Amino acid sequence: MGLLVGRRGVRNTGSNEPHLSRRDVLALTAVGLVAGAPRIAFAAESGSQLTWAVHVSLAPTWFDPADTQGIITPFMVLYALHDAMVKPMPGKSQAPCLAESWSATADGLTYEFVLRDGVKFHNNEPVTAEDVKFSFERYRGAAHELMKAQVAAIEIPDAQHVRFKLKKPWPDFLTFYSSASGAGWIVPKKYVEQVGDEGFKKAPIGAGPYKFVSFSPGVELVLEAFEGYWRKTPSVKRLVMKVIPDEATRLAALKRGEVDIAYSIRSELAEELQRTPGLTLKPVVLQAPNWLYFPEQWDPKSPWHDVRVRQAANLAIDRDGMSKALFLGYCKITNSIVPYTFDFYWQPPPAAYDPAKAKKLLADAGYAKGFDAGLLYCDSSYSNMGEISLDNLQQVGIRARLEPIERAGFYGSYGGKQYTRGIIQAGSGAFGDAATRLASFVVKGGAFVYGSYPDIDELFPKQADELDHEKRAAILDKMQQLVYEKAIYAPIWQLGFLNGVGPRVGESAFGLIPGFAYTAPFEDITLKTG
Predict the structure, then answer these.
(1) What is the pLDDT of residue 26?
(2) CA-CA distances (angstroms) from residue 9 to 5, 19, 319, 414, 524?
(3) Could you read off the pLDDT of 79-105 as tens digits, one per residue?
């Protein structure tokens, strides 16, 4: 669960482990007593293996591209196990991968992809156009309805060519297909039909740089290098992703050399990591805005229906203070749910921290004494953010209680529209542009949309049909301006994701793909030699 930092001090977020302060944890770490492991300084007996300490419990749905939702976490696994026709890679947001090339007709109605010669799945079966068509038609994740509504037909002239015929010109087709969904990540048709969806999750076969070896739920995922990977044979022969939800335990394992890379090390623990000889802090500013969302704002009986209440919540959040306390100040505050690096991003006015003005807005809305907002739902790996948000809101009179939930369950329920009351703290590091982000989180029918506004909804199809870049940008600017004016969200920041790397790692691959949270491409990761 992790340790929380806020005005209430440090506390354990719920497990059967003893209650430890951060100072206690760091002291135990120094003598090698956390988790009962022996004191080993950077063990090297693992040979050509690297081990990750993963901050969330791995979910089998993340092994199947068909189930990819509008968050970045599944790509932590997808970049190892699978490959896509086109995907973000170092230096290119749309890099040719399984497809060596593609082209579009002048009228924008047809996209044709040419498969790279000789690419294979892990069972040594060739990747064919049939697999590409099957993977698209099977896709059921984020934006699947939107994408399939735009495609009139998929033609297969031969085993190396795939032709997508659109119903009308759609300038975002390649963006959705290559990065903002999992529809372009290819699975083997024959194998999936043989074992079924559940069988595939238990023993996935992909075309990526690493093959599935084993998975122990809540414990670890083991992968080994695929010698036949088209781009290059990975130099690290075995990857182990260990699930270690507690932050202090991740750092302890990194210090002892039990793991080589640890995701999400924050606050005082990040400072301790920086001071530890042999360890390196790797901060990455992600394309992952975090926010508070108010699903009751469409209910006339709820305080959140009044825009002044939502504006008050925005003014109550001390973003700078939270970033310094938890992320050493690495987060980038943009006041938007759209990453500033995305095409068509509109910069809203700067975020303000003004508790006095927040209290006045609440009083003007009839809540001078504040109100009970119920539960604040969040991904348990960011409970510490939720704790500070709760304290900030309570300072102006908005009272809520924290409800941390393991990530896969949280986003499943969030996307399943189960959090109809209270406040939702969430975020998304998914690839795409402003249109794809609005499609998932603002526009009617979006995967994480609990309600919408007609004036925004009516603009979305207009921008989707607009082929002129400047005119389309103007429409998307207007949509983002309305999101800001209506205070649909309280944006917090773009996350400054802090990670630890041990001394055995050569190239960690953090930051090679701009804005990406995790280590990738996996085939570029190296061990130090000598």
Answers:
(1) 40
(2) 6, 13, 18, 29, 41
(3) 999 999 999 999 999 999 999 999 999
